[in-house]
Amino acid sequence: MAEMAANGEEPEVLFWVGCAGSFDDRYKRVTRAFVQILEHVGVKYAVLGTEESCTGDPAKRAGNEFLFQMQALTNIEVLNGYNIKTIVTACPHCFNTIKNEYPDLGGNYEVIHHSTFLQQLINEGKVHVKGGEAFKGQRITYHDSCYLGRANDIYEAPRDVLAALDADLVEMKRVRANGLCCGAGGAQMFKEPEPGNKDINIERTEEALATLGAGNGVIATACPFCMVMMNDGVKNKEQEESVKVFDIAELIAQAEGLSK
Amino acid sequence: MIGLENIIFLIVAAIGIGLFVWQIRKIRKNVLMGRDLELADNTSERINKTLLVAFGQQKMFKRMLPAVLHLFVYVGFLVINIEVLEILIDGIFGTHRILGFAGILYSGLMAINEILAALVIVACAIFLWRRNVTHVPRLWNGVEMRAWPKLDANLILITEIVLMLALFAFNISDLKLAQLRGAHIAGAFPISSLFVNALGSDPETLHVIGRVGWWFHILGILAFMNYLPSSKHFHIIMAFPNVYYSKLLPKGKFTTNPAITHEIKAMLDPSYQPPAPEVDAEGNPVIQRFGAKDVEDLTWKQLMDSYTCTECGRCTSVCPANMTGKLLSPRKIVMDTRDRMEEKGEHPAIFAPNHYKEMGVERVEVTEEKTLLRGYITPEELWACTSCNACVEACPVNIDQLSTIMDLRRFLVLEESAAPASLNAMFTNIENNGAPWAFSPADRFNWADELYVPSKN
C-alpha cells in the first residue's frame, strides 16, 4: 500500500489480510488463493503489509474494550491516512469489527467479506470456474460462521459461491440462523475451553461427518477460526485422509486452475 | 339494575386493578435502577418488528408444535379479553350480555370464543404433559430450573384450564336456562350446546352454577393478573415493549464505551481535549464502572429483558457451551439478573417467589459476595461464552442475553484484571506484536514471499 501511495495511486479495494491470514500457516494458503483470484480478474488491490495490525476483535470479545479501542483507533488512522474506501477481507471477525464497530470510532468504509466479493465476481462472469466439473460428485457441506451468519445475515453468498462448483452440496442439520458455532468465537480461540463433556468443535465435526457420509468429502468454511476448529475436529476423528477442510476461496482458485 | 352484587363487584375489581398498578410501579422502579440508554430512534422499524415478532409470533415458529399450541393460547387470550370487557360492564351495571345487541357479530364472537377456549384447554393440557410427563429437556433441566420455576409453570397452565372451564360453566347454564324458558339468547355456543344436558333441569341450581361460573371467571382473571408480576407469565405484557425496544443493529455490533475513547484519544494526542466529565445533581463527577458488576451497571433494557423472560429455555438449548456440558446457561443469566434486581430493589408482590435461592436449595458454587457477578453468576459461566449469538437468535421475545454476558466480562477484565491467564497472554501479544499470537509484526507480509517467488527470480 505504501508503495502505491508513493506513486500517487489509490487501490479499488484494500485486502485486509488479518492476523490468521498473515501468520497461520494453513490460512496463509487461503490468503494466497484469494490474491491469485484478485490478480486473475485484474482488480486493482493493495494490502497494508507490515502496517496492518490486529483489528482488536479478540480483545473486544474477551471484554478488553480498552485494548480494542487502542487497536481500532490506530488502524483507523492508518486506513484514513491512505484514504481507503473499500475493504475486502477473508476473516468474518475482521469483517464484523471493521464494518460494525469502527464507524463509532471514526472509521467509515465499505467492508465486503470475500464470500460476497467472490459471489459478485461469479455473477459478473469474471470468474468462470472453468474446472468446476473437477468437483462433480464431490460432497461438500458448508459450515456457517457465526460472525458472518447470525452476526451479519450473510448466509447465501458463500453457498452461491459453492453452487458454482457443480458439486453435490449437502446441508448439515443445524445451518444458517440455527448454525452451530465452531467453538472459537468470543476469544475462545485463545484459551482452553471451560470444563464440560465435549469440545464444541468435536460436536460440530461429528455433525459435518454424519452429513457427508462415508467416502470423500469437503467441509467448506469461510472463516479462519472455523477452519482451525474443523481441521482439529477432523484430525481428532482421524478422518483427515478422506475429509478435507477448505476455504471457499481455495475451492474457487482450484476450480479456476489458479492453484493446485 | 344495580344491586349489592354489582357494588361488591366494583369494589373487588377496583382492588384487583389497584393492586396490579401498585405492582407495576414497583417493577418500573426496579427496571429504572439500570443505566440510561436512548432507544427512541427508528419508530417505524420498531413498530414493524413489534408487529412481526410480538403480535405475529414470528420467532415462535422455529419450533412448530409449541408454536401452534402457543398460538391457540395467545389468540385465545386476545379474543377472550373482548368478553372480559363485557363481563366488566355487566358486573358494574348489572346488565346481562350487554354486547348481545350486536346480533350476528356477537354470535360470531361468542362462537370463536368458545372454540378458542376449548383449544386453550387442549393446548394447556398438552403443555402440562410436555412439562411433567415427557419432560422436554429445556423445560426441565438446568440449575436455574428450581422448585419455583417448575411450580410457576404448572400453576399457570392449571389456572388457564380452570378459567376456561368457568367460562363454559357460565355459558352452559345460561344456555340451558334459556332453553327451559323457551327464550332466545344472544350469541352462538358451538361447544357449550354439546353439554347442555349435563347440568340437570333445576332452574335454581342452574342460576347458581351460572353465577358461580361468572364470578369465578372474573375473580380468577383479577387474581391471575396480580399473580403475573411475580411470574414468568409476565411475558404476556412485557413481550410487546421488550420487542419494541430490541436491538436494531447487526447482532455482531457490540457497544462502544465513549469514556474509553476519550481516554485513548488523549493518550495518542496530548492536544486532544476530552469533554468535561458528567456531573450528578450535586455537581460531583459521575463515576461509572467499566462493565457490569451488579444490576445497576446494566441498562434498563437489559433489566427489562429479565422481566420479559418466560424461562422457555430456547436460548439455553441452542447454546453451544451449554450443549457440550459447560456451566453457561443464557437463561440462568437472565433469571439471575431478575432475581438479583428484586433482591436489591423491591419485589412486585407481597411474597417473593423469585428468590428461590433463599428456599434452601444450593445453586452453582458462588462466593458470599452479594453482587450479580459472583453472588449469582460465576466467571466460569461467563468465560464459556463463544459470543455466537445463538441465544439471541432463538429468543422469541428478543432478549439480548449476550449483551449482559459481555458487560459482566468487561468488568472482570477492565476493573479486576481477572481474565484467564491465556487471554492475558493474548492481550499482551496484541499490545506488543499487533497480533493475538506471538509473531513478529515484521513477518506479517511473509505470506507473499512464496506467492511471488517466480517473479522475484
Automatic annotation (TrEMBL), chain A:
> Where does the Cysteine-rich domain lie?
13-99, 140-230
What domain of life? Bacteria
Gene Ontology, cellular component aspect: plasma membrane
Give the record's keywords alphabetically. 4Fe-4S, Iron, Iron-sulfur, Metal-binding, Oxidoreductase
* Keyword match Iron-sulfur: yes
Q: Does the keyword Transport apply?
A: no
MF terms from GO for this chain are:
4 iron, 4 sulfur cluster binding; metal ion binding; oxidoreductase activity
What is the protein's name according to its record? CoB--CoM heterodisulfide reductase
Q: Which organism is it from?
A: Pontibacter actiniarum
Automatic annotation (TrEMBL), chain B:
Where does the 4Fe-4S ferredoxin-type domain lie? 300-330, 373-405
InterPro entries to which the protein is assigned, alphabetical:
4Fe4S_Fe-S-bd, 4Fe4S_Fe_S_CS, HdrC_iron-sulfur_subunit, Helical_ferredxn, NarG-like_sf
Q: Where are the transmembrane segments?
A: 6-24, 67-89, 101-130, 151-170, 182-200, 212-229
> Pfam family of this protein, just one?
Fer4_9
Q: What are the GO cellular component annotations?
A: plasma membrane
Instruction: Give the GO molecular function terms.
Output: 4 iron, 4 sulfur cluster binding; metal ion binding; oxidoreductase activity
**Keywords attached to this entry:** 4Fe-4S, Iron, Iron-sulfur, Membrane, Metal-binding, Oxidoreductase, Transmembrane, Transmembrane helix
Name the domain of life: Bacteria
- Is Nuclease one of the keywords? no
Protein name (record)? Fe-S oxidoreductase
Name the lineage.
Bacteria, Pseudomonadati, Bacteroidota, Cytophagia, Cytophagales
